[in-house]
Design a protein that fits this description.
Length: about 450
Amino acid sequence: MESWVIINFFIALSVGAIIGLEREIVHQKEGVKDFGGVRNFVLIALFGFFLTYLSLFIVDSAILLVVGFIGVIIIITSAYIIMGLRTKRYSTTSEIAALITFILACIIASGSNPSFRILAVIVTVIVASLLALKTKLHNFAHKVHMGEVFAAIKMALISLVILPLLPNQNYTLLDIPLVNGLFTAGSKSYLFFQQLDVFNPFNIWLMVVFITGISFLGYFFVKMSGNKKGLFLTGLLGGMASSTAVTVSMSRKSKEQKGGINGLALAIVVASSVMFLRILIEVLVVNKNLLGKLVLPLGIMAFTGTIFSVFLFFRKGKKENKHNVMLKNPFEFNTAFKFGLFFLLILILSKSIYILFGNIGIYAVSVFSGLADVDAITLTLSSLALSGVISAKVAVLSITLAAATNTAVKAGIVRVMGEKKLSGLIMIMFAVILVAGILTAVFV
């Protein structure tokens, strides 16, 4: 027997055990009798594994697998009907999980390709997570308003319908006949506009969808975790959606309550540290070649922020205040459209100033963009570096400058809107974070 068979056998066994254990725990906690526990799910997984192995590698016929699959469906359906008649509960969650377990075991047993094992493990984690998060998902659905649902549906339809139809080609202003007629071919102005080939409708909207998706993850987790969260969780989840929103909210809170600034500072520092990690994810997707050079300065900034977060966590006291951050639904079309326009503006501005002033111009645009948003300049510089317009070194330093500027802006927000003690604490911590990141980007 080949080694991959033994490995796949134990993986199939684990798949059944993980899903079955989750079902067993839920049934015991809820005090209900339902289809399947650990033993049943393990047996279903083993049955699927051996049936597939026999069909593909012993008898070399898929008939046995088809008959076995139909048999499993009949057993699961019968169990559903019998349990429903006995308990008057008609939930198909466990039955569907059992069917998925059988299919996963069949996939694992189908060959030695590692991708099959990886796919099965990923699906197992997703299934187990969805089953375990039942209560959280129900609470999330309860908190979501219909307006937010319609906004998400509209955004999805616009993206799925419009995105494939958008031309994936770079355009310049000279492609507009009226504008083209204003310049003489070969003149300096003509050559300048000819180099501004940054308007790619497909790529621009694709980046809008990408950033909106990242922001929605944070928005989703904030909604799912409840209205009132611990300040550490507020910073962690809120930072995924908008670290600026967290900063504004905590700053206002500091003037409403007396004392307890360490907890508020914790939320702000954690949210800002998450922002650095978010930038790295964006770079990984757009231009992974930059990641190796950018991970050090941004990693240092995130690590420094984490150290301060740990310090603040143990300083905030046992009576932790809880606070909710008001976030806008990132799937609102107006929000997405405004980001698309801002992204296009930064693209044009970056390329124009680079043509006129070289690398110094890129640094200036990075600082300017960082005053309002760090996502647009990150995507822009990653794209320019990928196309060879600017060097990787310039892109890394510029993105670091943008992140530093955005962090400094948040310190300014605390200074203007927050309590003096909170402002002083944030100023010191952010100063250390910025110096560490910028020095690393310049000299390493």
